[in-house]
Amino acid sequence: THFLFHSLQAKMSRPVQARRLEGIDKNIWVEFVKLAATYSKVNLGQGFPDFPAPDFLTEALTRALGGGNHMLHQYTRAFGHPPLVKVLAQFFEKLLGRDLDPMTNVMVTVGAYQALFCCFQALVDEGDEVIIIEPFFDCYEPMVKMAGGTPVFVPLRPNPPKDGKLMSSADWQLDPAELASKFSEKTKAIVLNSPNNPLGKVFSREELGLIAELCVKHDVLCISDEVYEWLVYDGKQHIRIASLQGMWDRTVIIGSAGKTFSATGWKVGWVVGPDRLLQHLRTVHQNSVYHCATIAQEAVAQGFQRELMLYGKPESYFVQLPKELQQKRDWLVQSLDGVGMKPIIPEGTYFLVADISPFKSDVPDVPNSDEPYDSRFAKWMVKNKGLAAIPLSAFYSEAHKNNYPNFIRFCFAKEEATLKAASDILQKWKQEKTSS
Ligand code: PMP
Question: Keywords, A to Z (predicted)?
Fold first, then answer.
């Protein structure tokens, strides 16, 4: 027909890509997730547990499915299923020591990813600068750019311990003068991620105090990504920057049920903050995704009700999970140290960054290549040894990708058998090296 003829002929020749996507079309996860799927025998790359989510959570989902409330299969309130925003408000009232309104101080999102997207879209304007602390969860940079903002990077700098001890994530610190120098009239927001992915750094009260002081002085917002809030080790405490003087009014707290309840595939996240900020996030959310799966929200609400009841008790998942993960961390630290791949001991999260220097002779460098060495190394390792990890350069901006070429990130939220298999691969590799 006439119509068919036209559609066959009409090839488009105009550029189709919106300008806001320029320079952000390459993505590390697309590449490394595919490499891991193709080659890995043991995957310590992407951040997700390979152990089951807790029974109380999966049982809550089963109950929601079969419990006779067929309305749980329909739309719910756009800004969060009422039972979930209510229990989140109760929980955060406890954590923050202030009254919260579930309808205006909490919003449920499709994972922490969408919470971040709402923040940048709602709060960052063309020409605004957003300070990002390096190394950082990689999506902050493209999200700032898509909003028309300019990312301004400030590094955590390592201070190697003198006495031959292993480095800790606490040895990576901001230089106060350098941080202060990044704040200007153009600064709209700073992104804080504590506990930090990829290093596992848990910012101290002094460090948070410094950031808070600068935010107040320059009237800057704080986007506080706290998805690893419960994963803190060695008796350390996660401090919420929103609880520091002058910060509640200018901070959006971001969380994730995926990380909190070991169910990353559910994609339930949230924001907590003052209505004067959240009202704008609601506008973005309403006009983009509308809401997150009702039934997943219902089950997460029940998970939080359980945790509220058991708060601080030994049976609490938020107490048990970090205990188990700390053991896994220690185990991976030992096996990496044993083969000479020096780990930086993380204070929090389920990630660990390790120094690959002793294994470099197996993976030739290519001078003047566009690709950072650690990325080449991680690709070689998954293809030749079957072990997947993520290069540290993935967590640096383009200009700084070659700053620390000898580190890769492992995820240790894995079954013992998985961690053992990883350790076996590394030991065998080391033996081959010493005997050749
Ligand atoms: N923030 C950080 C620091 C993360 O590491 C991740 C997940 N890797 C997210 C946000 C996204 O979380 P979600 O899966 O809930 O979207």
Answer: Aminotransferase, Cytoplasm, Lyase, Pyridoxal phosphate, Transferase
Q: Where are the domains of the chain?
A: 27-53+317-435, 55-310
What CATH architecture applies to the domain 55-310? 3-Layer(aba) Sandwich (3.40)
The hierarchical CATH code for the domain 27-53+317-435 is 3.90.1150.10
Q: List, chain by chain if needed, residues with CB within 6 Å of any ligand 1 atom.
A: 47, 111-113, 137, 193, 197, 225, 227, 256, 258, 264, 269
- The gap from C-alpha 59 to its chain's centroid, in whole angstroms, comes to 27
Strands 407-411 and 129-134: unpaired
Q: For ligand 1, what atom is nearest to the CA of residue 264?
A: 14
The pLDDT score that the predictor gives to residue 25 is 82
**What's the predicted TM-score (pTM) here?**
0.96
First-last CA distance in the chain: 71
- pLDDT per residue over 238-282, tens digit each? 999 999 999 999 999 999 999 999 999 999 999 999 999 999 999
Distance CA 178, CA 331 (A): 36
DSSP 192: E
Other CB atoms within a 10 A radius of the CB of residue 179 amount to: 18
How close is the Cα of 82 to the center of ligand 1, in Å? 23
pLDDT tier at 192 (50, 70, 90 boundaries)?
very high
